């Protein structure tokens, strides 16, 4: 029996790698999609290639686009420092419209693949400061996707799956570990070295470390 296809957004980090394993556990054939968008380092793209290979996805595609052209984020503008202390409001690591852009391209590939499923690892618990990680955004995008595509007009309704949306980092780590995810292959740090070593100080590093501690599991992250 042919498995249904799913496009899964893959950054190379802990969350998106877990989503790949979860999609596979649900019986989907995974088509992984990553973006070379002008981010601060390429270590996460190398990690994405590594994890896609180890998890045995059907295909891994990397799409190039340059969000440095508009900047506005510590992840795409080297003149904006990555914060190493907690802050209020929307953090400067928010990349303007990034999830909207990424999901739009994923939508196009899903149509080409005749897929009715897109998986994305957004999380409203740990990243509540990001407006494009909220359930309301995902619901609105899904509505738009089914209005704007040939597949949607013809009745092949697409669904955006967000399996991590209400999970804590500890729950994500536990679930991924149950599914056999090798987290030592992933890179979550906002300012990792070329070799993929994590700073241990940025928001992403702090959340990741706390997740392993709360889950009661050893943290395999390679720190500077």
Automatic annotation (TrEMBL):
Cofactor requirement: Zn(2+)
Superkingdom, natural source: Bacteria
SUPFAM superfamilies: Adenine nucleotide alpha hydrolases-like
Highest classification ranks of the organism: Bacteria, Pseudomonadati, Pseudomonadota, Gammaproteobacteria, Cellvibrionales
Xref: Pfam families: QueC
InterPro entries linked to this entry: QueC (IPR018317), Rossmann-like_a/b/a_fold (IPR014729)
Pathway linked to the protein: Purine metabolism; 7-cyano-7-deazaguanine biosynthesis
Catalytic activity line of the entry: 7-carboxy-7-carbaguanine + NH4(+) + 2 ATP = 7-cyano-7-carbaguanine + 2 AMP + 2 diphosphate + 2 H(+)
Annotated binding of ATP, by residue: 10-20
Annotated protein name in UniProt: 7-cyano-7-deazaguanine synthase
One GO term (biological process): tRNA queuosine(34) biosynthetic process
GO molecular function annotation: ATP binding; ligase activity, forming carbon-nitrogen bonds; zinc ion binding
Keywords: ATP-binding, Ligase, Metal-binding, Nucleotide-binding, Queuosine biosynthesis, Zinc
Amino acids binding Zn(2+): 189, 199, 202, 205
Naturally occurring in which organism (per UniProt): Simiduia agarivorans (strain DSM 21679 / JCM 13881 / BCRC 17597 / SA1)
Keyword Nucleotide-binding: yes
Gene: queC
Enzyme Commission (EC) number: 6.3.4.20
Function: Catalyzes the ATP-dependent conversion of 7-carboxy-7-deazaguanine (CDG) to 7-cyano-7-deazaguanine (preQ(0)).
NCBIfam families tied to this protein: 7-cyano-7-deazaguanine synthase QueC
Gene3D superfamilies tied to this protein: HUPs
Cofactor note as given: Binds 1 zinc ion per subunit.
């Amino acid at each position: 029996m042919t498995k249904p296809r799913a496009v899964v957004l893959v950054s190379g980090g802990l969350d998106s790698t877990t989503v790949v394993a979860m999609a596979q556990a649900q019986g989907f054939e995974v088509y992984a999609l990553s973006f070379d968008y002008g981010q601060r380092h390429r270590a996460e793209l190398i990690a994405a290639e590594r994890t896609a290979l180890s998890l045995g996805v059907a295909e891994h595609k990397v799409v190039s686009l340059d969000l440095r052209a508009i900047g506005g984020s510590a992840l795409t503008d080297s003149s904006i420092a990555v914060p190493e202390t907690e802050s209020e409001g929307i953090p400067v690591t928010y990349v303007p419209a990034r999830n909207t852009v990424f999901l739009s391209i994923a939508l196009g590939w899903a149509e080409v693949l005749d897929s009715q499923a897109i998986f994305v690892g957004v999380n409203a618990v740990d990243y509540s400061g990001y407006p494009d990680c909220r359930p309301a955004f995902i619901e609105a995008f899904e509505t738009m996707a089914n209005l704007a595509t040939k597949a949607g007009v013809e009745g092949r309704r697409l669904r955006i799956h967000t399996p991590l949306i209400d999970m804590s980092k500890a729950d994500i780590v536990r679930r991924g570990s149950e599914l056999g995810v090798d987290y030592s292959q992933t890179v979550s740090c906002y300012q990792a070295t070329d070799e993929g070593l994590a700073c241990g100080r940025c928001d992403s590093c702090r959340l990741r470390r706390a997740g392993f501690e709360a889950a009661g599991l050893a943290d395999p992250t390679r720190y500077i």
